[in-house]
Write a structure and sequence with these properties.
Blueprint lengths: L1 E7 L3 H12 L3 E8 L6 H14 L6 E3 L16 H4 L22 H11 L4 E5 L4 H9 L9 E5 L15 H5 L1 H9 L4 E4 L1 H4 L3 E2 L1 H11 L1 H17 L7 E2 L1 H10 L4 E10 L9 E5 L15 E7 L1 H13 L12
Parallel strand pairs: 1-2, 1-4, 2-3, 4-5, 5-6, 6-11
Antiparallel strand pairs: 7-8, 9-10, 9-11
Helix pairs in contact: 1-10, 1-11, 4-5, 5-7, 9-10, 9-12
GO molecular function: purine nucleosidase activity
Keywords: Glycosidase, Hydrolase
Protein name: Nucleoside hydrolase
Length: 326
């Protein structure tokens, strides 16, 4: 079993990724930590609790701190045009959910859980890297205690989606992302180089609902606003960014990676740009030297990824019992 902490900002595609993690037979979801990004951290935490309740997820939810690593960084408006006013496609999520949250801040929950299961926990972060950077700052030794780190973010050999240079998760807290990229833990970046090639069509989603029952019907309802947003960007359907990062955990063979040190531009017109120095690139000296070689996903078997997502989401019997939180 893969023990996973899911660091997330639900968010429509976050919801699909969460259901994937919950339903996959080889994944034990030991915690959900929330961060701001697709909405405020109050909203993303409320949404995580809502999905926990609706999908009967046992993992505890821990709330992140609502500011970037650099508190002087200017706040950007929430992307309500992508995820809706409620962050979950304007389905009418209740204002409050009568479930408790873990008393620890998200970064402390990450530290405690990694230390409780040394060498066993994979962090999958699909929002801003703020919680991971805070955990690194408070307890640098966790770099040697995690099993791995998988993030959804960045754009190396393609354009960004916030501006030509930057992808949204990285752009939201570049300083945090740079700290995460340069830490000496095993890191894989699943970014726009592969997620923009992975399109779930309306027909794909309808077929999942037909097979998957009430859980997938809720997911479909959440996704319709998101699909409408993508109408002018993909021929039919939506990009499943965050689920791609989750698929990498259980099926890394569906991706082609490139190894090399990574940095994030912090400031200027390319604020949030992710740049990798491939291991075989002869240049320098530079600020990319002497840093850990990390993996960036550059190619993807999109049909196989989409099939694995569909089969997992439609499997209503998977991970519905016997799972406990940290």
């Amino acid at each position: 079993m893969h023990k996973v902490i899911f660091d997330t900002d639900p968010g429509v595609d976050d919801a699909m990724a969460l259901l994937f993690l919950h339903q996959h037979a080889e994944i034990h979801l030991v915690g959900i930590t929330t961060v701001f990004g697709n909405a405020s951290v109050e909203t993303t935490t409320r949404n995580a609790l809502f999905l926990k309740r609706e999908w009967q997820i046992e993992a505890p939810v821990a709330k992140g701190i609502p500011e970037t690593i650099d508190p002087a960084r200017a706040h950007a408006d929430w992307p309500t045009f992508v995820h809706g006013e409620d962050g979950l496609g304007n389905i009418g999520v209740p204002e409050t959910i009568d479930l408790p949250i873990d008393p620890r801040p998200a970064h402390r929950f990450i530290i405690d859980t990694v230390r409780a299961y040394p060498g066993e926990v994979t962090l999958i972060a699909v929002g801003r890297m703020t919680n991971l950077a805070r955990a690194l700052k408070e307890d640098p030794e966790i770099v040697g205690l995690v099993k791995g780190v998988i993030i959804m973010g960045g754009a190396f050999d393609t354009n960004g989606n916030v501006n030509p240079a930057a992808e949204a998760n990285i752009h939201g807290d570049p300083e945090a992302a740079d700290q995460v990229f340069t830490a000496a833990w095993p890191l894989t970046v699943v970014g726009l180089d592969v997620t923009t090639k992975t399109v779930m069509t309306r027909a794909d989603l309808a077929a999942i609902v037909e097979r998957g029952g009430a859980r997938t019907k809720l997911l479909s309802d959440i996704s319709q606003f998101y699909i409408d947003f993508y109408e002018t960007r993909v021929p039919d359907g939506m990009l499943v960014h965050d689920s791609c990062a989750c698929v990498y955990l259980v099926a890394p063979e569906l991706f082609t990676i490139r190894k090399g040190s990574m940095r994030v531009v912090c400031g200027g017109i390319a604020d949030g740009q992710t740049i990798q120095k491939p291991d075989d690139l002869g240049c320098g000296p530079s600020v990319w030297d002497g840093l850990p070689s990390q993996a960036a996903c550059m190619e993807v078997d999109a049909p196989a990824v989409l099939k694995l997502i569909a089969d997992t989401l439609a499997n209503t019997g998977a991970n519905t019992g016997g799972k406990t939180g940290a």
